[in-house]
Design brief:
- The structure holds two protein chains of two kinds.
- Chain A contains 13 helices and five strands.
- Chain A is mainly α.
- In chain A, β2 and β3 (about 35-40) form a beta hairpin.
- Chain A is elongated, with a radius of gyration of 29 Å.
- In chain A, about 30% of the residues are buried.
- Chain B is mainly alpha-helical.
- In chain B, about 80% of the residues lie in helices and about 0% in strands.
- The chains are: A mainly alpha, B mainly alpha.
- At the A-B interface, β3, α2, α4, α5 and α8 of A face α1, α2, α3, α4 and α9 of B.
Chain lengths: ~300, ~350
């Protein structure tokens, strides 16, 4: 798409996929003007969700039929057959559209794996989009499967060449979601939808929780705190979470590294009081960087080099 | 230095309660439906959402805690989905679809519908004249699975009897209707995915339907049963062929977007046009359900010529009004609302 511009023909900004730390995300600007980044669902999660849904569509009716037969339902009755065929039909064509409209972009399978269909512009999900993204599944899944495993059903008279071509064509549809960076399948392209992940937000405790009233044991100088940036601070936050979870070796390793970099002379603290050293360094570092941020200076990454020979 | 001196810790302490409250409201809205929330909670939801959004903006600018920004990001995303969801109840959405969206879309896309109709009907015309001149062409022009014992070898009496055969039981009729519906739906709904091949298969499907229609009517017209066969086809044929035209139009729209993407790029163009296609196809399904009910039940229940004419006479003005009067009005209204 070399001619692509940033606006579509209605003058709306084109949706964008942006990289994040955890993979790609769909960037949606809310009416309030804040850009939200919805993580694009992984192909594995989508496949699993689809398998769960297809199980419900295809196996559940069979089970019902078996159980009904067990309890002496007159399965050879034409009226009952009609009802059953009609029910199967409604289930097959109605399951996805109904759930996705009623559950705001989710189906039972999607709920289990934690994915959701959203409008690519971030607007409300439209019924037309939901419908079209689900009927194209016929061509994307059913047809390729028939072409690949039961070719005689489709072309009785086809030559090997036509079969090979059809198989290739079917395969392209099947693989489309992993071939584009939006993870779109054909139905998403036409319907204007994207499948995103819906992680359950979890507010973790501050790693400094309950640390305020104690006497601090270590003090760090401004020089020592000027080496690391926001990124390292976040990594240290993760390290402290590991330490809180009972991992003491990581504390030692990281504490040694930091002590080395900032020129911390007292190696005793590092070996015997690593966890506490790390936490206090984290507190001091965060306060330092926050203060600098307040003055409009943001340091994202650490500086190269280290301080040597300085005793705190 | 204590933790309370950290700006980020104060920020969190001040706002955490409202995040938690939002989280709790969202959980209930997601699991039990938004209508289970009380009026005051419903009012609170967007306020909390905006507060969280502002927290997120602040956190992105000032927070050095990764977990907070991540949490707020996920919380606001979750809230955004709920706050800006389509909250129209199902029955109203359906009503609006029938009285506004569907006819308006058909009207707006009428040139594509006309194009699909023109392709099908002109091929049907050619096929008709071909079979009139040489009845043996019937075998090559007619879809084999649809011949079902109706061919140039059949006697005129048998053909006439086939048009006016009496009905079976209600259950048989219903079963027949369901089978018809299944067949028609599968055929029509496959049009659009096939359209991704630049529309060529769409034209092929229209072509197959056209030759069959032409050959079939020619067979009866050649025996002086022309009016009778039209009266047999049209009661269900009007909605059914309309559905095929709409499906074909959907396919042509996709093909058009693929071939003439304009400045915004192919994917974006298809996405823009996709909404129309979805509406057309949804309407298609409903038309096909109607057609199957007419073909399977209404027409078969009373196999009388004049009754069939009545069904045609009622439908023609109705659909004309529906798509071209109502559709035009609604299309204008929607356009106004957009501007």
């Amino acid at each position: 798409m070399s001619r692509a511009t940033t606006k579509d023909t209605n003058g709306l900004p084109l949706p964008q996929v942006v990289p994040t730390r955890y993979g790609r995300a769909l960037s949606v600007t809310t009416p309030e003007g804040v850009a939200l980044r919805f993580p694009i669902a992984s192909p594995g999660a989508r496949l699993l969700g689809f398998l769960i849904d297809s199980l419900l569509i295809n196996v559940l009716p069979l089970l019902i039929l078996l159980i009904a037969g067990r309890f002496g339902a007159p399965l050879d009755d034409r009226a009952l057959q009609t009802v059953f065929v009609l029910g199967l039909f409604v289930l097959r064509f109605g399951y996805f559209p109904l759930f996705e409209t009623r559950w705001n972009g989710q189906t039972p399978g999607k709920r289990v794996v934690g994915t959701r269909v959203i409008d690519v512009y971030g607007g409300p999900l439209r019924a037309g989009s939901v419908f079209i993204r689900n009927i194209t599944r016929e061509a994307e899944v059913t047809l390729p499967l028939i072409v690949m495993f039961f070719p005689h059903l489709l072309f009785e008279r086809g030559t090997d060449a036509t079969r090979a071509l059809s198989a290739l064509w079917a395969l392209v549809f099947l693989l489309l979601p992993v071939l584009n960076r939006w993870g779109l399948r054909l139905g998403d392209v036409i319907g204007g939808t994207v499948v995103v992940e819906t992680p359950r937000p979890q507010l973790l405790d501050d790693v400094l929780k309950g640390y305020g009233d104690e006497q601090l044991r270590y003090a760090f100088s401004g020089d020592q705190l000027s080496l690391y940036g926001a990124y390292e601070l976040e990594v240290l936050e993760q390290v402290l979470r590991h330490v809180d979870a009972g991992d003491s070796t990581i504390a030692l390793v990281v504490a040694e590294q930091i002590a080395n970099k900032i020129g911390w002379g007292d190696s005793d603290t590092v070996t015997h009081d690593a966890a506490r050293f790390l936490r206090e360094f984290y507190l001091a570092q965060r306060a330092f960087l926050e203060q600098r941020l307040q003055y409009g200076y943001r340091q994202n990454r650490k500086r190269v080099g280290r301080i040597s020979g300085v005793r705190a | 230095m204590t933790v309370t001196r950290l700006r980020s810790a104060r920020f969190r302490a001040e706002r955490e309660a409202s995040w938690r409250e939002l989280e709790e409201l969202l959980s209930r809205a997601e699991s039990k439906g938004i209508r289970k929330l009380s009026a005051s909670e419903l009012e609170r939801l967007p306020q909390l959402y905006r507060a969280a959004l502002s927290s997120l903006s602040v956190a992105r600018e000032t927070s050095l805690e990764g977990s907070i920004t991540e949490y707020l990001e996920q919380l606001t995303e979750r809230a955004y989905i709920v706050v800006y969801a389509n909250r129209m109840p199902a029955w109203r959405a359906l009503l609006r679809f029938f009285t506004s969206t569907f006819p308006a879309t058909v009207y707006r896309e009428r040139w594509f519908v006309f194009a699909a109709a023109a392709i099908l009907l002109s091929i049907a015309g050619l096929s008709f004249f071909a079979v009139m001149r040489d009845p043996n062409l019937y075998y090559s022009l007619m879809e084999p699975s649809l011949i079902q014992g109706r061919s140039p070898a059949t006697t005129t009496q048998e053909l006439r009897a086939g048009l006016y055969d009496s009905a079976g039981s209600t259950v048989e009729l219903l079963l027949f209707a369901v089978q018809l519906l299944k067949h028609n739906l599968t055929v029509t709904l496959r049009i659009v995915p096939f359209a991704m091949l630049f529309g060529i298969p769409v034209i092929y499907i229209l072509y197959i339907n056209g030759t069959t229609l032409g050959a079939f009517t020619a067979l009866y017209a050649g025996r002086g049963l022309g009016i009778d066969v039209l009266a047999w086809i049209l009661p269900h044929g009007i909605p059914e062929f309309t559905a095929v035209f709409l499906g074909g139009a959907g396919g042509l729209i996709v093909a058009h977007a693929l071939l003439f993407p304009g400045s915004s790029g192919r994917m974006a163009r298809i996405r823009e046009r996709g909404a129309s296609v979805g509406i057309l196809l949804l309407g298609c399904v409903l038309l096909l359900i109607l057609a199957a009910l007419i073909e399977g039940i209404a027409r078969q229940a009373i196999p009388v010529f004049s009754y069939r004419l009545l069904m045609i006479a009622v439908q023609l003005p109705f659909w004309g009004w529906y798509f071209f009067w109502l559709g035009r009005r609604q299309a204008a209204k929607l356009e106004e609302a957009q501007a």
